[in-house]
Structure of DUF1023 domain-containing protein:
Amino acid sequence: MTELASRYRENHARLLAAQQRLQHAVDTGTATAHDRKRLETVAELLTPRKGTDVDAHGNVIAVEHPRQFLSVDVSGQGRAVEVIGDLQQAQNVAVLVPGMGNSLETFRGQSDRADLIRAEAGPGTATIAWLDYDSPQGFVEAASKQAALDGGPRLAAFMTELDDLTDATTTLVGHSYGTDVVGQALLNGARADRVVLTGSPGITKYVNEAADFVPAPTRLYVERAPGDYVSYSEWHGPDPATFPDAIRMATNSDEAVSVHWHNEYYRVNSEALRNIGRVVRGDLAAITTTETTRGQETKLAWGTVLNKAAGVAHKVYDGLAPPTARRPVPVTPSHPAARAGNTRPRQPEGPRR
């Protein structure tokens, strides 16, 4: 049995044991409301993922894929790290780090999002839904950087572990508060071939360009959708979509499903998801870009209010956790500036590390 298969089996057994323990609490009348909800969640985590395949005769058939957990913890908010696809055979691997408001109860949604990335990137891709940190629950907790400061080193350690499990090209994908976790992981030595940030509230107030936290030759790819109030707020630092050495990917095109606001980056048939897939599979010349400004993207009257709220949020999290010290990293050459609204493909990045 391979190391991966052994870990999948161990975590499956861990879930079965948790299910039995929670069911016993229900049967004996000692279960809390949280226990009952967690029992339903564990049952879902044990349910195989349904899909389709093509048999030897060309017929589309229904198939079931066992869930593959590298780690799982049913206590507290709950944590889980799930592999979607064949990690051993994959040529490209994407690690998705979700943002605020997540727990074991919402994990399936993040797992499905990782599966969408896998499908968009195409054959030879495996994805990993990584929720191995205590995601902030609500805006007050999200205003603090503490969860990112705690989760970043854990993610960095996982990326080192991933290097031992696969030789595939790796892409870190962070969404919302998860982009701050990704940033802290990179500041703590995490290595990935490419980094994608969507809907970022910023990394830290001292990070003003990719070279401040992304080690060369890794390139940073950023998406900011029109009307994304989280990116506009810059709660945790300058908006990465404005970094001069980041590649700003388009989220919309005339023929694709439209993407607006904060939670639509992973819509099927959207330019936002297509570009993420291009990064993951290394089809970098096909990436479409944009340099639209906030003013061009939205005329929302409450933009000023959000920026004022961001200032309050800075004071809140500054009081809870000191900012991460800025670490010197090699500076990569800035990519050529594109004209506003340009959707021409970028040229491929430099050589892999």
In short: The chain is about 35% helix and 15% strand. The chain has two domains: 1-47, 67-320. Residues 13 and 70 are 12 Å apart (CA to CA). The radius of gyration is 20 Å.
